[in-house]
Amino acid sequence: MGALGQWLEQEGIATTQISLVREHTASIQPPRALWVPFILGRPLGVPGDAAFQRRVLLAALRLLEAASGPVLEDYPEDAPSTSSVEADGFACPVSFGRPVTEDGLSGALQREVAELAPWYDVARSRRRRTTVSLSGLAPAAAAKFIADFISDSATPSFREGLDVALALRLVTQDLKAYYLEAVAAQPGAQVALDASRWFWNDTAAGKAYLDLRESCLRSSDDAVRRFGARSLIPLAVAPRPSGIA
Amino acid sequence: MTRLADLGQWERELLLDMLEEIPGFGLHGRPWVAGPSLRQRRVAIVTTSGIHRASDAPYADGAAANDYRVIPGDVSADELVMSHLSSNFDRTGFQQDTNVVFPIDRMRELAAEGIIGSLADFHYAVMGAARVPGLEPTARRMAGMLKRDAVDAVLLTPV
């Protein structure tokens, strides 16, 4: 992102930026940057905390008044813990457990989707929004497309004009968002990193995504193989398979 | 907590590998544009978070995603969704509150209080997983539009 700052500045527009990876910013040396000690995905630090966000934002904007640069300032305030392991040594209070057999995965996925529906409805109503809207498919239909693709990597896209790799990305992002929005509404809502661990370790969906990767890697479509290799499974969960650009 | 030492080995290696790509970005010099005080600035947000309105097309595959999305200044934060290619960052914060990625409501408050001069009519989003050198023409086109919007300061936010 620092490169964008350089190019915009070359075009005559002053820039300031929030940096999440200090090493990258220190190497690029954009004109003005505020490094923040928050997890990737949360440059303003804390969702739902306007006062915290405002302090971060003002610190970044104040760099526009620096006399000279490049400036790389470190933001001094940590965000509250995003993992109960860090906070109190307890994680993942909600668990579906994994399905026992491979044969039951598709069914287990549909059961999970149904079980989460009332919590998703609570979350949507409470937040007055949802990010589960990329594919246009309902969660059960998204889960079926994923299960179908696991069974047969030649499964066509669910919509004409939408290539399979993008279709897979949109349904997997939607379904994961459905799970994470729903679980956040449950009692004792899990903080960010716990919810991620729950999704990947304890749900049929997490297992389905790992199986989906294997199916993608068997595809004859380069874009699908690339999606499976690079974009489906976080590096915190599994390494990238080698040999796919 | 995004200190490399706190990340797992594979995440850390990916971020360190990216450092090796930086010399290939073709960056030259130390550009520096001075300007008036914050309260006289007209500010736009440019984000690499891969967000867009739910009604806009999602971002395509990373190899071809050197495009951008326009976010109108009067957008409701609740209209924005994210189709970023990467799965290597937290999305639960964004799901809960758009402002943790794209602080449009906070910026409106600062403008209303006179702490910044004004907010742009249009903001912009790209997807950070796009190949960085391919973003240069996009950035320069964006600069032209920002200037026509009388913008003289940009806040860049990552994800």
Structure in words:
The complex is a heterodimer of chains A (245) and B (159). Chain A is mainly alpha-helical and 245 residues long. Chain A folds into 2 domains: 2-74, no CATH class; 102-231, no CATH class. Helix content of chain A is 52%, strand content 6%. Chain A contains 10 helices and 3 strands, in the order H-E-H-E-H-E-H-H-H-H-H-H-H. A 3-stranded parallel beta sheet of chain A has the order 1-2-3, sandwiched between helices. In chain A, strand 1 (14-19), helix 2 (22-28) and strand 2 (32-35) form a beta-alpha-beta unit. In chain A, helix 5 (105-127) runs antiparallel to helix 6 and helix 6 (139-151) packs across helix 9. The relative contact order of chain A is 0.11. Chain B has 159 residues and is α/β, with parallel strands linked by helices. Chain B has one domain. Chain B has helices at 9-21, 92-96, 104-112, 135-148, and strands at residues 42-47, 51-53, 69-72, 80-82, 118-119, 122-125, 153-157. The longest helix of chain B is centred in the C-terminal third of the chain and has 14 residues, at 135-148. Chain B is globular, with a radius of gyration of 17 Å. The mean pLDDT of chain B is 90. At the A-B interface, helix 1, strand 1, helix 2, helix 3 and helix 7 of A face helix 1, helix 2, helix 3, helix 4 and strand 7 of B.
End-to-end Cα distance of chain B, whole Å, is 13 Å
Q: Mean pLDDT across all residues of chain B, rounded?
A: 90
Please report the total strand number of chain A as a whole number: 3
User: How are the strands of the largest sheet of chain A arranged?
Assistant: 1-2-3
Low-pLDDT residue intervals, each spanning 5 or more residues of chain B: none
Largest interface comes to: A-B, 89 and 84 residues
Task: Name its key features.
heterodimer, A: 245 residues, mainly alpha, 2 domains, 3-stranded parallel β-sheet, 10 helices, globular, B: 159 residues, alpha/beta, 5-stranded mixed β-sheet, two-stranded antiparallel sheet, 4 helices, 7 strands, 26% helix
